[in-house]
Amino acid sequence: AKLRKENGLTQEQMSEELNISASYLGKIERGIQAPSLPLLIELAVFLKSTTDYLLMGYDLRQETRRNCLIV
Fold first, then answer.
1. Contact 35, 43 (CB under 8 A)
2. Cα separation of 49 and 27, whole Å?
3. Which of 12, 20, 26, 35 has the smallest count of CB within 10 Å of its CB?
4. Sign of the CA dihedral running 45, 4, 15, 37
5. With contact defined as beta carbons under 8 Å apart, do 59 and 48 qualify?
6. Confidence of residue 48 (pLDDT cuts 50, 70, 90)
7. pLDDT tier at 71 (50, 70, 90 boundaries)?
8. Reported pTM
């Protein structure tokens, strides 16, 4: 919901763009239902995010870079 709201979209607007129901999007946002892999990828692209961020709340690539030691 955070990214959707940051993009100034309601559930209705976003669900219409993704061709899914607003109630299904609400269930995904609340963690009641998981999206299919194709929809997860579509959500990441639509929200200009990553699947890592959508699934875990942070971008795994960024965390990996921070944890690397440079010799």
1. yes
2. 19
3. 12
4. positive
5. no
6. very high
7. very low
8. 0.78
